[in-house]
Amino acid sequence: xxxxxxxxxxxxxxxxxxxxxxxxxxxxxxxxxxxxxxxxxxxxxxxxxxxxxxxxxxxxxxxxxxxxxxxxxxx
Length: 75
Known about the structure:
The protein is mainly α. It is 75% helix and 0% strand. The chain has helices spanning 2-35, 50-71. The protein is elongated and about 65 Å long.
């Protein structure tokens, strides 16, 4: 019975690692977009390409975080 509980605990730890890494990866674009949703003077505020640059920055940060978690064997 103890061996079975240990196996279930190890499987649960793996699932929690994956869910945690996915949550972190998905929260990074929200963090970046929230900075640009404030009523402050921000860099590139008047630029026409601001949305594209912020989207590319968010995608790059997500990709770097995903690669980091993949390297750590969390994904």
